[in-house]
Amino acid sequence: MVEKFTEFQGKRMEIFREVVKREWNEKLLTNDDLEELVAEIKKKYGYSDEDDLFIRDHIRVAMGLNPSQSKSFTYELEDIKNLDHIEKPIVTKIEGRCESCGKELEERDCYNSCKYEAHMYKRSKGPIIVNEKCLNCGSCVSSCSFGAIADKIEFLPITNLLKDEETTVYAAVAPSIVGQFGDDITMGQIRTALKYMGFQDMIEVALFADMLTIKEAFEFDHLVKKKDDFFLTSCCCPVWIRLVENNYPEVFEHMSPSVSPMVLSGRMLKKLYPDSKVVFIGPCIAKKSEAKEPELAGAIDFVLTYSELDEIFKALDINLAELPSDEKDQASFAGRVYARTGGVSFSVKTVVNRIAPRRLVKLRAKKVDGVKECKQILEDLLAAKEREANFVEGMGCDGGCVGGPRTNIDTDKATKIVNEYGEDSLIMTPFDNMNIIKILQELGSDRIEDLMDEGNEVGRLLIREKQ
Fold it and tell me: In angstroms, rounded to a whole number, what is the distance separating the alpha carbons of residues 158 and 178?
């Protein structure tokens, strides 16, 4: 999040901006062009020749590639041209920097960054990323002051798609995007900017959160019948999902089978517009990993973050404040407040009360955020200490998605803006969202109940299985 955005992280994004500017203007065509970029970065930031490998690897990561410790560029530009997806791992170690930290082991910023999941620090080698345990929460990336840990950036392959007139590309934006690019910047101006870049349109992922709200409300009504029954929501957060699935298999049995709104947006858009590509834009490093999970792969082609998009706008000289506003009301209050802690619980409870107002066992929500609190509630559920709540919502970041590691503004401010934007919606509840009915009709259905039927084509789009 903003307060964790270290000095080097800022420099790293400036490096990315230079890469984008050159690529977009077709000045990144040969290895000589990459060598010129290295020389410019050294001069601009005062790096020495000892930092040469380090700079080269940061350029590779900014291009979406693995760091290689190679002293020269070889096939990087060719690899990018042929890349239809970014390979795991998303969070990667860049060698040659930890030695410059200058702090005692226990005083290093990254030392306890994974203490609630996989303790990643090795005394002799610095941070070690254990991919099978990594939640991709971004804590280690944000905490490293020296750029030794970084997440791959996925924009360069997207430029090829945006410049290809025969390829249709949609931007699916997370509910937390509102306010991320300035107090007076509207969603309509962001849509205009994205269309200027070559996107066909900008779609609110909150629309698909509305769909999942309806599905999970019906699931809760069906599954939670007794006092001790409980239900875990799977919406939104891949950090929460992976934490439960990897470490608490007994509790995972109570998890909703629903996909996240991000995945559903990609699946639905590709059903409606075959052969199109979908780029998700959000606050989260973990979404980059989620898009590549085997059972979810293919829904989302690439993922960008708010901080990356901000640098892209700067690199392309796009001034949002000067653009006309192309406004569309696509989602309800319920879908838009998925962006902050408690949003999912509030939304699902609203629909449960509507579909089953006479339920004897009412929805009692527990909302937790941050990996520490998520882990604690899971321990309590496993030990049967927590039975007051029967609907548990977990968010890996403090404050929810508005507190993600790649946001541009303060969490409290973002929460306030999200609430206000939700209240501005002309659509009162998910059931009032006629966009859902229109989508279902396009897919050959006019029954909202089809969202709950996993036996039909529409219903299968909403569950975690390979399509």
Answer: 23
Q: Tabulate helix, strand, coil % of the chain (nearest 5).
A: 45, 10, 45
- The DSSP H or E segment spanning 435 is helix 434-442
Rounded Cα gap, residues 97 and 212, in angstroms? 44
Q: What is the residue-wise DSSP string for 152-212?
A: ---HHHHHHHHH-TT--EEEEE-GGGTTTT-TT--HHHHHHHHHHHT-SEEEETHHHHHHH
Residues present in the chain in total: 467
CB-side neighbour CA atoms (13 Å) of 74? 5
Q: Which two tokens stand for residue 252?
A: 């995972």
pTM across the whole model: 0.93
Please give the Cα distance from 31 to 26 (Å, whole number).
Answer: 13
Distance, in Å, from the CA atom of 297 to the CA atom of 189, rounded to the nearest integer, reads 30
Dist CA 395 CA 109 (whole Å): 23
CA distances from 284 to 229, 292, 374, 449 (A): 31, 14, 17, 31
Rounded Cα gap, residues 158 and 174, in angstroms: 18
d(CA 459, CA 123): 49
CA distances from 401 to 168, 243, 419 (A): 28, 16, 13
Nearest-CA neighbor of 56 among 38, 44, 42?
Answer: 38
Three-state secondary structure call for residue 299:
coil
Q: Distance between CA atoms of 421 and 392, rounded to whole angstroms? A: 25
Parallel/antiparallel/unpaired status of strands 365-369 and 391-395: parallel
- pLDDT > 90: what percent of the chain? 67
Q: What is the bridge-based pairing of β-strands 277-282 and 302-305?
A: parallel
Q: Quick one: pLDDT at residue 9?
A: 65
Q: Say how far apart CA 441 and CA 102 lie, in whole Å.
A: 62
- Sign of dihedral through CA atoms 293, 296, 301, 302? negative
312 CB-contact burial (10 Å; exposed 0-12 / middle 13-18 / buried 19+): buried
Cis amide leading into 89 (omega within 30): yes
pLDDT in tens, 332-357: 999 999 999 999 999 999 999 999 99
What average pLDDT does the segment 305-315 reach?
96
What distance in Å separates the CA atoms of residue 160 and residue 171, rounded to the nearest whole number? 15
Residue 214: name the closest of 448, 454, 463 by CA: 448
- 366, containing H or E segment: strand 365-369
User: Residue 5 — very low, low, confident or very high, per pLDDT cuts 50/70/90?
Assistant: very low
Q: How far is CA 15 from the centre of its chain?
A: 22
